[in-house]
Amino acid sequence: MSCSNILNDYDGVRHNYTRKGGLVWQEVFLPDNAPAEWADRSVLWNAVEAAETTKESRLARMFVVALPVEMNHDQQTALLTEYIRQQFVADGMCADVALHDPDSPGHNPHAHILLTMRPLDEHGDWQYKTEKEYLCVRNGEERGFTAAEFKEAQAEGWEKQYQYKVGKKKVYLAPSEAEAKGYERISKHPKSTKYGRQNPISERWNSEEQLVAWRAAWADTV
């Protein structure tokens, strides 16, 4: 995208695209709470890579936008800057943008915008995308709680559920109920939702409604 030379710390592979043509302009935009050193895209994307530990993790979201051929490159850059700052950076994302025009001037002007997937906290640290959610019971009612929420819920009588051997079956029960009946626990892992609880900010960023809003905002900006 940016015709850069970047070493991927994760696997030790160097990616050198400095001979690639067609680049008109590139920039990294950061929210105020992001570490200043992330202005170097090599540092930024290695930080993103380090934060993701599962093989199916998404590292970035990419937009490809067409730019009006009636504008010169300075105007196209100003257009992109306004849109990226208002729609992405102001909402807490880091944005890495590259403006391409392979047959300059004005043949096929377009931009690639790479966006980070995780929100940042006030200290500039990555927040979670999803958080483990335990399915707890109280008086026959089942409800999901994160680890932080469970501390208060436990004081109100909610219990995590574990697998116990009931005859030939494996059944999830609260420890108070299972121990009263003498059942044997067969797993140390409490019952939880399959995908966990999404960070509400990430959930909004990933929604179809947000995509429609971003597209509409691009049209309005153009």
Helix and strand run = EEEHEHEEEEEHEEEHEEHH
Arithmetic mean of pLDDT: 94
> Spans with pLDDT under 50 lasting ≥5 residues?
none
For the largest sheet, list the strands in their spatial order: 3-5-6-4
State the helicity in percent bands.
25-40%
The global form is elongated
* Beta-strand percentage range: 25-35%
Task: Count the DSSP helices.
Answer: 6
- How many β-strand stretches? 14
- Could you tell me how far the N terminus lies from the C terminus, measured between alpha carbons in angstroms? 22 Å
Largest sheet: 4 strands, antiparallel
Over the alpha carbons, how many angstroms does the gyration radius reach? 24 Å
Structural class: alpha+beta
Question: What's a quick, concise take on this entry?
Answer:
With 222 residues, the protein is of the alpha+beta class.
Explained architecture:
- The chain has 222 residues and is of the alpha+beta class.
- It has helices spanning 41-51, 73-87, 147-155, 175-180, 200-205, 208-221; strands at 5-7, 14-16, 23-29, 61-66, 95-100, 110-115, 130-131, 133-138, 141-146, 159-160, 162-166, 169-173, 184-185, 197-198.
- A hairpin with a 2-residue loop joins strand 8 (133-138) and strand 9.
- It is elongated and about 75 Å long.
- The mean pLDDT is 94.
What attributes characterize this protein structure?
14 strands, 222 residues, elongated, alpha+beta, 27% strand, three-stranded antiparallel sheet
